[in-house]
């Protein structure tokens, strides 16, 4: 088993940014979902409500590291804008009703760009000021587990074997990117074997498997055309439904921090 893909999402719900290597920090991959778009009252705005977000490209590597962000939207005809990590402007935000969490406002220039890109007034761009202030679901996490603006865990993992099985069930294949996992693993002999793992060692990082991920309608949106379909949720509902939800990929909690790279071997417990 080896790591075949690493994905960052610098701003939650925007375009996926594949990378060759990353650092697994206490709150997830450095540069992953550290920024977020919120509405006027501080609630998260995602592509499930606003698919146009998939056409916003957020790249922290373009600024030379995690201390800034470059936003672009070639399909929307907007000039890029550079955003620096704010030092003040503390606001309270919520991720799917959880919180409030401390964040810092990116400022009027970034907000104006985001509003134009998304065609929505009142939205703002914020940066996660303190991941340690966030409490994750007790059913998944321990008090020492934290995340930035990821949904339920700091890191997510999907396997190509599980995706191949799902594609075999569906009438039309979908790419594994529909599930927006941070880590993609190949070489697993059995589909959905990751459901039964307890711990993953990859590169110099050690991650605890906290459980499977329940999936939402965002996986049914084509990130290129922005059209909505019924799969993969429809097919998952037939083969991977329990507790009233559909499931694919797994949540990971960080036990030991360290670098990871595409090609790294995995060992599991």
Automatic annotation (TrEMBL):
At the top level, the lineage of the source is Bacteria
Where's the MOSC domain?
A: 123-269
Q: Which InterPro entries match?
A: MoCF_Sase_C (IPR005302), MOCOS_middle (IPR005303), Pyrv_Knase-like_insert_dom_sf (IPR011037)
How is this protein named in the record? MOSC domain-containing protein
Species: Nocardioides eburneus
Taxonomic lineage per UniProt?
A: Bacteria, Bacillati, Actinomycetota, Actinomycetes, Propionibacteriales
């Amino acid at each position: 088993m080896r790591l075949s893909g690493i994905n960052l999402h610098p701003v939650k719900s925007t375009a996926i940014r594949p990378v060759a290597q990353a650092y697994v920090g206490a709150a997830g991959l450095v540069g992953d979902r550290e920024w977020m778009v919120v509405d006027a009252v501080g609630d998260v705005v995602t592509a499930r409500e606003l698919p146009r977000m998939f056409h916003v490209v957020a790249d922290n590597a373009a600024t030379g590291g995690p201390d800034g962000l470059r936003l672009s939207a070639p399909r929307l005809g907007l000039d890029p804008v550079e955003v620096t990590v704010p030092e003040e402007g503390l606001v309270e935000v919520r991720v799917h009703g959880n919180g409030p969490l401390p964040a810092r406002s990116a400022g009027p220039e970034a907000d104006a760009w985001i509003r134009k890109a998304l065609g929505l007034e009142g939205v703002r761009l914020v940066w996660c000021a303190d991941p340690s202030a966030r409490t994750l679901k007790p059913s998944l996490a321990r008090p020492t587990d934290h995340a930035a603006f990821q949904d339920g865990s700091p890191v997510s993992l999907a396997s190509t074997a599980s995706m191949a099985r799902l594609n075999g069930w569906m009438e039309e294949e979908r790419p594994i990117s529909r599930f927006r996992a941070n880590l993609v693993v190949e070489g697993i002999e059995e589909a959905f074997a990751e459901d039964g793992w307890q711990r993953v060692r990859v590169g110099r990082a050690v991650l605890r498997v906290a459980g499977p991920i329940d999936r939402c309608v965002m996986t049914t949106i084509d990130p290129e055309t922005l059209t909505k379909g019924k799969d993969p949720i429809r097919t998952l509902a037939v083969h991977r439904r329990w507790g009233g939800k559909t499931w694919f990929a797994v949540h990971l909690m960080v036990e030991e921090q360290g670098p990871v790279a595409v090609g790294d071997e995995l060992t599991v417990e």
